[in-house]
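Thread: quick sanity check before group meeting

JM: Hey all, I'm pulling together slides for Thursday and realized we never actually wrote out the predicted structure for the chain we discussed last week. Dropping the sequence here so it's in one place. If anyone has concerns about the input, flag it before I start.
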Amino acid sequence: MRPGDGTVVAVMEVGGTHVTAARVDIADRSLQLGPAHRESLDGGGSADDILAALVRCARRVPVPGGSRWAVALPGPFDYARGIGRYAGVGKFDALYGVDLRAALTASLPGAAGITFCNDADAFALGEWWAGAARGHRCAVALTLGTGVGSCFLRDGRIVRQGPGVPPEGRVHTVRYADEPLEETVSRRAIRRSYARSTGEVAPDVREIARRARQGDRAAAGVFADTFRALGRALGPLLAAFEPTVLVVGGAIAGAWDLVAEPLRAGLTETAPARTADIVVTPARCPEEAALLGAAYLATTPAATAPGEPRGRTRAP
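JM (edit): ok, ran it. Output follows.
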């Protein structure tokens, strides 16, 4: 079915510390029956523990028999087959080789079918369909947290290759200062930079952000350097891909007051003429975007394009 036909889809978003479940009304482009349900999750736990958390959360969503489920979760994952490919990535390693589709189908009463998608792709499509990128024909979305998630979109289709698009559309594959980008831009990289600057055991990113707002020069400097570097790395890509909007979400985007200015400055340093007009904005529905995008992907055929036409275009 296509969006707008009144379809309701049950959805889950799986992260390293929590799982969220809800129902999405496709016609209204919104969550149905109030806010989403959330359950704590230990991404380093056993397969049984992870599955139990998913099922507990899913069962809190009232769905009729024969309902479809759409699940957004990070890779590496075989999304077509529903099988985990995690190995040495620091979370969900216990799901390596686990047929998550079969396990969930057996545990969710009345589940008629389960589709899986990448969480960064779902976030991007949710923001394009119902959030900050709505109305833009060409968009890039980032999620900033334990790493850098990304998705490149044109006309509502995920673009995996072409001018300005890194391998598979994944910005984390980009190198910066002769290292993988996530050695500069990630939760661990920010904490490491702060520890080096102060000689302290680094607190979490939220505390570093709080200190930056209170005048801690080291903390402010870490945010400035980190996100200027991200802008520098992105600049040539966006200049070639030619989006009209860059949407930023994820836990670290909660410190948008510390992220926005250096990110924009880095973009204009590397490609000033071709990035100056790009709208750089935080997500409009950061808690819901991946849920909305997962439902959109589950109901929209051919959401992935093999290539893309050129042109800085914006939908009316």
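AS: nice. The radius of gyration is 19 Å. The chain is about 35% helix and 25% strand.
JM: adding both to the slides.
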